[in-house]
Every structure is written in C-alpha cells, then in structure tokens.
Amino acid sequence: MWGLITYVFPDPTVFGLSFLNWKNLILFMSAFVFLCVVYLGWYANRLPQMLKGAMLVILAGGLSVIFFALGGEYAKPSFDFARDQQKFIENGGANLLGKRLEVVDGVRIELLGCEKIGRQPNCAFELTNTRLDSEFRFESQTTLFEESGGALSVDRMQVGSSKFTYRDAFPLVRGIPTRVTLAFEQGRGDLKQAPALKLRVRVGREEDAVVKFNEVDIK
To answer: Would you identify the CATH topology of the domain 90-217?
Structure first.
C-alpha cells in the first residue's frame, strides 16, 4: 500500500499530505483489522455454539498476533522507507504537556528554549537516554536558521558544567537527564524567532538522524 502511495506521490508532503506517513498507515491497518474482527465476531453469533467458540478463539489469537506484529513494526520499522522517515523528524510545536520533545534512537531530545546572550543565540536542551549507556554527538550540519534564510553554525557547546567542542561525542547514561547548551554564531540582525532549528545527531553507532524544530522563539 505504501509503495503505491509513494509511486503516485513520491513526497506526499510536497502536496500538503503530511498525514501520509508510515505511522498513520500502521494505525489505519490496525483500525481496519480491528473493525474486521468486530464484524466477524458479530457474525459468529449466528453460528452453532461449537463453531462459534472455535471461531472466537481463532479471532482472538489472530488479533493478538497481528497487533503484536504491527506494534513491533511501529516501535522499530523494518521497511527502508519507514526507517528513512524515522531518521528525519519534524517538530511543529509543543505537545499537550507544553513540551517540545522528540525521540531519536532511544534518546529523548527536549528543547528547553533559546535566548540571546550578547548577539549569540543560545539554545538549551535536555537529553535523556532510555536505552543502554551510549555516546551522543552533534554533527556539523546542526544549524539555526535566520528569518532571512541565513544559517548559523554552532560556535561552542556546554554539557552540564563542562565545555566541549560541538562535534565532540559525550556520554549519555541511561535515565539521567543531561542538559546541553549550544551557542550559535552571531547573527546580523535582531533575531527574535528562528524559522527552524535543525539538529543533526548521532547516537552510538547508529546512523545520523535529523530533528528539526520549526518556529523557535528566541528571548
């Protein structure tokens, strides 16, 4: 099904169809399977008692297996297109708890906020590793975009109370929130809101991933 969608619309987001993604496809399939099972369960009431019991057992077992497979695919996709989409995450605003938060390879990346110190924009993050201890790195394409379209690179980085070169890897211990501050290059104008903040990151030996926060206020 996804192959047919991407054949007609190679990039659905170009046409404003951002809802056409692998996660929503899995959710749609789950809802479809559930409704089919409900219908078959209703139909089973018309069968003799013995056949009815056997059919309900088969439906319950089949539903469990299908939902287990779909849940595993949702948690860790095996298809190439899904893995590619999972490596580019776009955050358009705060969630219901008021947090701007995304998860990449088991690491929760929360944007705490951005402010100007002098003429340098500084953005603070809280990183929390939910898997085994590993290293984390910001790659060189990490960029803060100005309203004019200019791109500001990272000038320096601070992890906790320690200063690092921004491309240095640093340890992330499981379950311990780590505060990271990125100081970007000086902008030319009075930057009050960045159209986008793009983080290119790497967790352990995983492939690079991109997290893009849109419409970031700078105090």
So the answer is: Immunoglobulin-like (2.60.40)
